[in-house]
């Protein structure tokens, strides 16, 4: 229980650091540490596949991509940021936590017993046989992302 | 055949950037518009025949082997597919001339086709997680399309849209997680049965609140509207047309309606919440629209107001109210699509969106002015245009169910709508021709053609509205009405 609370606190703490940090590199590393915590939580909650993906892809691969991109960009003066965010974010966060605790406390006591999951089977079965349609959706999400990058980083050709 | 609605745009989108290397403009123009036209024809011909015996469930076969990819088609989803294909076709035609100066047309069409894939997928799927997945497909494509001009304002609007949309997605996903953890299933039918078996009224209430927040944000209902007045005006005109005409309705109104009517069931409380959310959106957005000088911002606020009418109509929950809401959804898709395309023609000719700088443009752009009057009057609810009938049906439904206050609000807000649209017409198209615009010409052929088609449809549907209601709206509203009867009154709220 204590370990679980520590892991969850770490996850929240590093997520907040990732948002509030002014240094992009620190933000990226905080995000990686946050997903490391999340990965461990997944393992402890008996979802090893989710844990493996979280740690290898989100904490590993995506962090490498972030750091590479940050290394390729150069700072062009300070970005002016409204100070409002410093007040609004913690306020919003505290309000969210209070609502979350109240709602969950009310819900958890009244949630009916969990029935057995209908989607049983191995990871491969679930991915390839039961949730086949999601693969089409995944493909579409990836394609949409690729086209977005192509569109947003295109060179404006004056002749066109 | 029905899988073509998802597979064809996805496939063509995948190859378009490669084709763009060979032919920068002509082939992408032809291919993309051929897909839009084909899907529109498919929806109005074989689609109707397919559901003549009631809703059908189709499973994909690959070389004789069944694959676990299944979609459901009923009157409601077919109606949405038709609306998506029709508006996207007009937007595609308009883009032939309009998107020339943006460059990289193949990539633009690829994103447009991805957005269509997302919307079609969302309309056809049968489970919660797939709804979320296709919602994201359409959303990701729309973020890039809003920022397509790559100017500072466009990037900022796109970022704001992205951030608020992520909050919406998080609320939706969280709600889906709660439902899955309770019922152990994601399919609409199984979840509906599971929740009733558990008698989980409290959880349904909690999830309904999250869905209202999430899909309300996607539909830009007030108070969840902050992103729309920035995002929709910043996008290129055809994209504004598709965002305001379709995307907010498919990813907001359709998804919310499908879940509330066919899975949870529309209880009296939910009905009141939806109606008042709609009424507040109608009134507040109409007042906000009144003060706008930027033409596209005015249209964007008007979209929030009109989506309010759609939600108000659907929220009544009576067969007439649902029919009115769906009919207004379709009419608004056509008219707002038309007006945003017109705004693109005007912006391309004059280089400005500020209505105070326009004036007398009707003398130089007669077709744009004429079609724009049709769109404005239809949205304002002036007879005999299509928008009049849908608003009338909604108001009659409100009176029939004893909601006098809401009926009066709907009528008065309609007057307000007419007011700001007449202001727009007077400032932009009538009066003395501003000297700066003496040299401008009517919009190019395809741009004008797209707006003329939409204007003719708006007038035509107004004249033969009974036919449209009988053949398209009624089957769609029947599906929702049956859903209500199935589950009504089982949650204790």
**Secondary-structure arrangement, i.e. CATH architecture of the domain at 1-81 in chain A:** Up-down Bundle
Radius of gyration of chain A: 21 Å
- The CATH class of the domain at 1-81 in chain A turns out to be Mainly Alpha
The termini of chain A sit apart by 62 Å
In the predicted model, the low-confidence regions of chain B spanning at least 5 consecutive residues are none
Please write the string of helix (H) and strand (E) elements of chain A. Answer: HHHHHH
The strand line-up of the biggest sheet of chain B is 1-2
Question: How many domains of chain B, as an integer?
Answer: 1
Q: Hey, roughly how much beta strand do the residues of chain A contain?
A: under 5%
> How many E-type strands of chain B?
2
Q: Name the CATH superfamily classification of the domain at 1-81 in chain A.
A: NADH-ubiquinone/plastoquinone oxidoreductase chain 6, subunit NuoJ
Biggest interface pair, residues each? A-B, 36 and 53 residues
Oligomeric state of this protein:
heterodimer
Give a description of the structure:
The complex is a heterodimer of chains A (160) and B (493). Chain A is mainly alpha-helical and 160 residues long. Chain A has a domain at 1-81: Four Helix Bundle (Hemerythrin (Met), subunit A) (Up-down Bundle). Chain A has helices at residues 2-20, 24-44, 48-72, 84-110, 123-130, 132-152. Chain A starts with a helix and ends in an 8-residue tail after the last helix. Chain B has one domain (4-490). Chain B has helices at 4-22, 26-44, 46-50, 75-98, 105-124, 128-146, 152-183, 188-198, 201-219, 228-234, 237-264, 268-290, 295-316, 319-350, 366-380, 386-400, 404-428, 445-463, 465-487, and strands at residues 56-62, 65-73. A two-stranded antiparallel sheet of chain B has the order 1-2. In chain B, strand 1 and strand 2 (65-73) form a beta hairpin. Chain B is globular.
């Amino acid at each position: 229980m204590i370990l679980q609370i520590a892991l969850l606190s770490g996850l929240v703490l590093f997520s907040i650091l990732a948002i509030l940090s002014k240094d992009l590199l620190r933000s990226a590393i905080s995000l990686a540490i946050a997903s490391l915590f999340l990965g461990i939580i997944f393992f402890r909650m008996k979802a090893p596949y989710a844990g493996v993906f979280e740690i290898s892809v989100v904490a590993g691969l995506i962090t490498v991509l972030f750091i590479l991109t940050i290394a390729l960009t150069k700072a062009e003066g300070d970005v002016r940021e409204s100070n409002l965010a410093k007040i609004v974010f913690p306020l919003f966060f505290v309000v969210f936590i209070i609502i979350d605790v109240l709602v969950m406390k009310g819900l958890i006591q009244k949630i009916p017993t969990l029935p057995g999951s209908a989607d049983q089977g191995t990871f491969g079965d679930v991915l390839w046989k039961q949730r086949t349609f999601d693969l089409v959706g995944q493909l579409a999400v990836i394609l949409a992302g690729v086209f977005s990058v192509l569109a947003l980083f295109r060179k404006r050709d004056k002749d066109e | 055949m029905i899988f073509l609605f998802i597979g064809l745009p996805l496939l063509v989108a995948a190859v378009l950037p490669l084709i763009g290397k060979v032919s920068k403009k002509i082939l992408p123009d032809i291919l993309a518009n051929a897909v839009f036209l084909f899907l529109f024809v498919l929806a109005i011909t074989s689609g109707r025949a397919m559901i003549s015996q009631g809703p059908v469930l189709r499973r994909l076969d690959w070389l004789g082997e069944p694959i676990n990819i299944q979609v459901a088609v009923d009157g409601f989803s077919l109606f949405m597919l038709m609306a998506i294909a029709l508006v996207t076709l007009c937007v595609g035609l308009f883009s032939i001339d309009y998107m020339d100066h943006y460059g990289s047309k193949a990539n633009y069409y690829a994103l447009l086709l991805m957005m269509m894939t997302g919307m079609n997928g969302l309309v056809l799927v049968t489970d919660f997680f797939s709804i979320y997945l296709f919602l994201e497909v359409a959303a990701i494509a729309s973020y890039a399309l809003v920022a397509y001009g790559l100017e500072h304002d466009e990037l900022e609007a796109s970022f704001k849209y992205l951030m608020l949309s992520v909050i919406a997605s998080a609320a939706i996903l969280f709600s889906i997680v709660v439902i899955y953890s309770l019922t152990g299933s994601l399919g609409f039918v199984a979840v509906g049965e599971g929740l009733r078996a558990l008698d989980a009224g409290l959880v349904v209430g909690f999830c309904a609140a999250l869905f209202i927040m999430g899909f309300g944000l996607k539909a830009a209902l007030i108070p969840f509207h902050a992103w729309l007045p920035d995002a929709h005006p910043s996008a290129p005109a055809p994209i504004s047309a598709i965002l305001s005409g379709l995307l907010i309705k498919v990813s907001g109104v359709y998804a919310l309606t499908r879940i509330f009517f066919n899975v949870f069931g529309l209880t009296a409380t939910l009905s009141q919440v939806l109606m008042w959310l709609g009424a507040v959106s109608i009134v507040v957005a109409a007042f906000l629209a009144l003060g706008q000088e930027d033409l596209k911002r005015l249209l964007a606020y008007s979209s929030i107001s009109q989506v309010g009418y759609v939600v108000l109509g659907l929220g009544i929950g009576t067969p007439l109210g649902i029919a009115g809401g769906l009919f207004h959804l379709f009419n608004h898709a056509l008219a707002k699509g038309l007006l945003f395309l017109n705004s693109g023609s005007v912006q391309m000719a004059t280089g400005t969106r500020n209505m105070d700088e326009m004036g007398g443009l009707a003398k130089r752009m007669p077709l744009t002015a004429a079609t724009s009057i049709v769109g404005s009057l239809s949205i304002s609810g002036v007879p005999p245009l299509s928008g009049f009938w849908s608003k009338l049906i909604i108001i009659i439904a409100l009176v029939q169910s004893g909601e006098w206050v809401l009926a009066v609000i709907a009528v008065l807000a309609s007057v307000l709508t007419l007011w700001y649209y007449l202001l727009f017409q007077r400032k932009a198209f009538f009066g003395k021709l501003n000297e700066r615009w003496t040299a401008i010409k009517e919009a190019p052929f395809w741009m004008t053609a797209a707006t003329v088609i939409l204007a003719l449809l708006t007038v035509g549907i107004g004249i033969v509205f009974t036919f449209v209601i009988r053949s398209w709206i009624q089957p769609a509203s029947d599906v929702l009405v049956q859903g209500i009867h199935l589950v009504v009154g089982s949650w204790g709220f």
